[in-house]
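Re: the 316-residue chain
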Amino acid sequence: MSQDDSSIMQQDSQLFEPLSRPAHQPGMMLGVEAVRNEQSYNRRRLNRHQYWLHGTGTVVGLAVMLSSQQADPDNTQDQAIKLIVNPGIALDGYGREVVLHEPYCLDLQAWIESQRDKATREWSGASTHVPVNGGLWLDICIRQKDCDSGLQPVIAHEVNSTIDPVATSRITQSIWLDIIPITPPNTDADALNLAVEPGAPLPGAIHPGANPDLNALLTETETAYLGNLAGVAEHFARIHADRLYRLLNSDLDREFLSAELEQLASVQLARIRLETLDDTKLVSHPSRVAINNLVRPFVNNPDMVGWVLHKYASES
């Protein structure tokens, strides 16, 4: 991750920092700083809208699919396999738009090869993420990343007056894809197929806060109010109560380390289990790869929620 990328993420992570914009006046001299400030104001304002009001996850598309040649019947031998991330749109951990306009390929075989010990051919990844119960677990994650493009001549400074100075003229919206080894709570072979009870929606990736003790925080009137509700209305009211007190113990102006910035910005696309040979030996073969795209977070709009509630009510 470049220093520039880290600086941008550090700025985007300050979601409570007051924003400012230039106050244009006739005859006022404005420099490049004012233009950058106005761009930053509009960009960060949109990010915050999406972070707080929509959350993090897939909006549409971005299905992760396995691509390979004709499968070799011998699944103990390595075979070229790739992960194809299809076009789509998501919101990353800072509320930034992630737009993938064409399929993107991740060479899973090359990634596995890079993680092997050259001598023993065994997995040599982090000690906390090793094959367990005959499988190695991976998360495919994505986030937004700015990309410099379009060099153009600029006015020379004293330190480089003897060369033709150029600088970036465009910043293109791009993406960063990553393969991250994990160790899930349940590492059984069939765990990837098991449904998990979804947690209550959080304010955002950076401000999950601690689960508030509503029994201690709610007033008597608020407790009685919740007690008089039932069904869907009660569930919504409890989510609202949770969010009301969610940020009491949250560090709103925290400075994050680069590794934390990367982790908070990334949003999961899929979870993968690689079946191993002899418990620990990794083999890149299509029959040994299981993918679940449905475990990722999704961004739901009001129409989706309304449709689900209508179906729930009509089937009850």
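The chain has a mean pLDDT of 87.
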